[in-house]
């Protein structure tokens, strides 16, 4: 390649890596903020965290006591001579409610109420962001998370739920997510995020594809560095998440007591980001493997030779396997949208093109490669090793015992017996039961015994 082309390829690889880094944040924002099922799943994991349960429990107790005069309620419940105890009992109930709120939130009933409240709030948010006519408008409405049912549930646990239900004001347990003056801006941001996630993902793949196309004979190097860029982008996202988490918590949390809950909320709500970054890293590893496979290294050359018969004789099965993998991904994917479909389609097309190019390269390098070169040879070596082990064992059993009698007491070996023994040894040698060394040793023994007997 010319110097200008090399520089262009390098610039495209760097640009693709940056786009991959930005794509992770765009995809995470789209799925976390604009997908109700993903948000409900996240909210369920939030309420299962101990620190967050404690913070939510404290909020519910505050809402209960801020919106209802518990002391007055107790005066109406207690008999006349015990009404003076309403004040101390109210304080005691607050302590009981405070210590028991977290246990209440551990129950499946409370957690289901929490998820239902989050689902309703998120659906309301999406309706507003998508500017549906029957949703709250940007002029006179707000998007809120209604935790009033959880406040009532907590009141049931302390024994005053029946009297409390009708007295809670409409705004009890209401957490404002977006105010009316912020909704128009949120709508514009949501539209931009939806488009940005798709555009950045496609641009990343197209930029890498252009870099590989321009590389010509050095494409394996470019593919390898595209993989390095994707891996670097994925790890950069994970590092950025850790740094940003500390900054966000410091900026938003004023009370040190709720800091653990805020840190846990950030960790759980951004866990999807880590999952997306991990996927990018996996793609980078696959790019790296593809680059290595096309390289002139000895290990890559041996692997290509091994793959040649499969790519030449069983190509339809290879493409069928690729189609099955893509189908399994779509059936098991947590989200189905245009971005996911196009991304998988482009990646699958790139893999198919890579298989085609690898088939062409291996066909030129190893036109005579056969499966028997590997599997047949391995089978022969295995059979030979087992056979040799069996022959040695059988030969040791057939070997005649040696007599250590003094030479003057050894009976002379008759010529006929010697010839018969030599014929038997020859047959064993021809059948492969005795190796050359074993046959020679036994032959020398027989002849030697005969010579000493004749002497």
Summarize the structure.
The protein is mainly α. It has 18 helices and 2 strands.
Give the secondary structure arrangement, pairings included.
Elements: H1 3-34, H2 36-47, H3 50-67, H4 70-77, H5 86-106, H6 108-129, E1 143-146, H7 148-157, H8 161-164, E2 174-178, H9 180-215, H10 219-252, H11 259-269, H12 271-293, H13 298-313, H14 315-332, H15 338-365, H16 375-398, H17 415-430, H18 436-454
Antiparallel strand pairs: 1-2
Helix pairs in contact: 1-2, 1-9, 1-10, 1-12, 2-6, 2-11, 3-5, 3-7, 3-11, 4-5, 5-7, 9-10, 9-15, 10-12, 13-15, 14-15, 17-18
- Low-confidence segments, given as residue ranges, are 135-139, 450-455
Biggest sheet overview: 2 strands, antiparallel
Please, how many helices? 18
| Total domain modules | 3
What is the arithmetic mean of pLDDT?
A: 76
Helical residue percent? over 70%
Structural class: mainly alpha
- Major sheet strand order: 1-2
Radius of gyration of CA atoms, rounded to a whole number: 40 Å
Beta-strand share of residues: under 5%
Order of helices and strands: HHHHHHEHHEHHHHHHHHHH
Count of individual beta strands: 2
Envelope shape: elongated
Distance between the termini: 87 Å
Account of the protein in words:
- By secondary structure, this protein is an all-alpha fold.
- It has three domains: 34-186, no CATH class; 195-371, no CATH class; 376-454, no CATH class.
- It contains 18 helices and two strands.
- It has helices at 3-34, 36-47, 50-67, 70-77, 86-106, 108-129, 148-157, 161-164, 180-215, 219-252, 259-269, 271-293, 298-313, 315-332, 338-365, 375-398, 415-430, 436-454; strands at 143-146, 174-178.
- The protein has a two-stranded antiparallel sheet with strand order 1-2.
- Helix 1 packs antiparallel against helix 9 (180-215) and helix 9 packs parallel to helix 15 (338-365).
- The protein starts with a helix and ends with a helix.
- Residues 135-139 and 450-455 have low confidence and may be disordered.
């Amino acid at each position: 390649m010319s110097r200008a082309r090399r520089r262009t390829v390098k610039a495209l690889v760097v640009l693709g890596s940056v786009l991959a880094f930005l794509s992770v944040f765009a995809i995470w924002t789209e799925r976390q903020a604009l997908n109700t099922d993903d948000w409900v799943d996240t909210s369920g994991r939030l309420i299962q965290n101990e620190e967050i349960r404690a913070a939510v429990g404290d909020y519910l107790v505050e809402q209960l006591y801020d919106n209802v005069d518990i002391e007055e309620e107790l005066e109406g419940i207690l008999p006349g001579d015990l009404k003076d105890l309403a004040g101390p009992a109210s304080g005691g109930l607050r302590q009981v409610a405070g210590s028991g709120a977290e246990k209440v939130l551990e129950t499946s009933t409370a957690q289901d109420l929490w998820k239902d409240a989050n689902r309703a709030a998120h659906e309301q948010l999406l309706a507003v962001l998508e500017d549906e006519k029957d949703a709250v408008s940007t002029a006179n409405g707000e998007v809120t998370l209604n935790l009033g049912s959880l406040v009532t549930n907590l009141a049931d646990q302390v024994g005053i739920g029946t009297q409390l239900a009708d007295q809670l004001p409409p705004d009890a347990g209401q957490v404002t997510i977006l105010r009316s003056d912020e909704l128009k801006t949120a709508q514009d941001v949501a539209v931009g995020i939806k488009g940005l996630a798709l555009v950045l993902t496609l641009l990343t793949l197209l930029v890498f594809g252009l870099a590989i196309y321009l590389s010509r004979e050095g494409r394996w190097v470019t593919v390898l560095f595209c993989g390095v860029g994707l891996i670097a982008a994925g790890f950069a996202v994970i590092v950025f998440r850790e740094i940003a988490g500390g900054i966000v918590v410091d900026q938003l949390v004023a009370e040190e007591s709720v800091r653990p809950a805020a840190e846990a909320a950030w960790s759980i709500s951004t866990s999807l980001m880590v999952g997306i970054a991990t996927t990018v890293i996996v793609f980078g590893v696959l790019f790296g493997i593809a680059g290595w496979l096309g390289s002139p290294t000895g290990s890559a050359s041996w692997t290509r030779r091994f793959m040649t018969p499969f790519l030449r004789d069983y190509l339809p099965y290879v493409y069928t396997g690729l189609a099955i993998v893509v189908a399994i991904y779509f059936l098991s994917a947590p989200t189905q949208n245009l971005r996911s479909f196009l991304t998988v389609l482009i990646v699958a097309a790139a893999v198919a093109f890579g298989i085609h190019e690898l088939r062409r390269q291996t066909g030129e390098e190893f036109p005579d490669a056969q499966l028997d070169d590997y599997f047949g040879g391995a089978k022969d070596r295995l059979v030979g090793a087992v056979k040799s082990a069996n022959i040695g064992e059988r030969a040791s059993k057939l070997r005649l015992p040696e007599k250590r009698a003094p030479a003057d007491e050894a009976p002379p070996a008759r010529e006929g017996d010697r010839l018969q023994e030599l014929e038997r040894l020859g047959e064993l040698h021809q059948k492969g039961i005795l190796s050359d060394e074993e046959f020679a040793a036994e032959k020398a023994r027989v002849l030697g015994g005969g010579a000493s007997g004749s002497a």
